[in-house]
Amino acid sequence: MQSVQEFRKNFNNIFFKKIFNMIAPYEQERKRCFVFYSVCLAVLVGSIILTYISLMNLNNLPDGMDSDIAFYMCFLPAVIGILLFCVAYSAAKGFELKIKRIIMPILLRGIEGFIWTERQTVDDALIRDSELIGNYNAVKVDDNFTGEYKNVGVSISEIELGEWRHSYVGRKNKTYERKFKGVIVALYPEKEYKCKILIKKDGLVDFVPGGLEKVNLEDPEFERKYNVYSNDQIESRYVLTTAFLNRFNNINLAFDASKIEASIKDSRIVIALSTTKDMFKVGSLHKAVCDYRQFKQLAEEFASILELIDELKLNQNIGL
C-alpha cells in the first residue's frame, strides 16, 4: 500500500496518463450544461424581477379583473423560473457525478482497498452514538469513502445533517435547522479505549454531557479552544497526551475547518470537521473538464483525511 506521500507524488502520473484522456471527450457536454445552467439562472433572475414588478402594480389592475387571481398570477413567472433552475442544478450535479464515477476508481488505485461510493459510509447509529451532532432527522449525503490505511479502518462521509420541525401555531409550519455540514471521519484503530472522551469546541455555555465530567488538561492554549469530557479522568489524561493535543490543533489548521470535534469510545474515533466548503468537488461547469487544479485539490483533500492517521499515530500501539 502506498503512503500518503507516495500517493501525492504519483498523482500527476495518474492524471495525465489515465484520467486526462478518459474525461477529455466530456468537454463539449460540459459546455452545453454550462450554457443551459447560465440561461436558466438568467431566467430565474428575470422571473423574480418580473414577479416583483407585477406585485408593485397590483393597484393598477384593469376594471373587471379579479384581484385575487391577479395576485396569484404574479407568482407564476417566479415559479417557472425556480422550476427551470432546479432542472439546471440537477443537470450540473449529474454531470459532476458522471465525472466522479469515471475518475474515482482510477484515482484511488494508489491507496489499495479504498473505494468511493454515493452511499453513506459513516452510519447514523455511529453518528448518534458519538454525541457530537445532537438530534437530526434529515440527512443529505455527497461523497463517501471507505477502506483501510496502515491497518486502521477508515470511513469518510461528506454530509449535511439537519432537523425538520413542525409547528401548529395558527397554521401548520415546517422549518429546517442545519445541525452539521462538513466531513465526518470514523477511524477504527487496532486498540480499545477504556474510557469515553468527547472533545467539543468551547462555547459561551458549558453543558456537561450526561455521565461525563469535565477534564482539566495541562495545556492552557488547548483548553481555551476546547472543552474535554470523560467518564474516567485518569484514563483520559493517559490518552490525551501533550503530543495528541498538539496534533489535534494541527488538524484544525490543515483543514481550515470552522469547527473540529471528536468522540473517542471503545475501538473507534469519530472526528467531525465542520465546513461550508464543497469538499472533493470535480466536474465544475465553470472550469474545463480537464482542469488540473480541481483534480489536484480533490486528491489533496482525500490525502489530508488519511493524514489524520499519520498525524494521530493511530497505527502505533501507544496512547494517542
SSE diagram, text form:
Blueprint: H1 4-23, H2 27-56, H3 67-74, H4 76-107, E1 115-117, H5 124-130, E2 138-149, E3 152-167, E4 173-188, E5 193-201, E6 213-214, H6 220-225, E7 226-230, H7 233-239, H8 242-255, E8 259-266, E9 268-274, H9 292-312
Antiparallel strand pairs: 1-2, 2-3, 3-4, 4-9, 5-7, 5-8, 6-7, 8-9
**What's the β-strand tally?**
9
Quaternary state of this entry equals: single chain
Give a quick account of the main beta sheet: strands, pairing sense, barrel closure: 9 strands, antiparallel
Order of helices and strands: HHHHEHEEEEEHEHHEEH
The radius of gyration over CA amounts to: 25 Å
Tertiary shape: flat
**Counting H and I runs of at least 4 residues, what is the number of helices?**
9
| DSSP strand content | 15-25%
- Order of strands across the widest beta sheet? 1-2-3-4-9-8-5-7-6
Poorly predicted residue ranges: none
Distance between the termini: 23 Å
Percent helix, as a range, is 40-55%
Overall pLDDT metric: 86
Class computed from helices, strands and strand pairing = alpha+beta
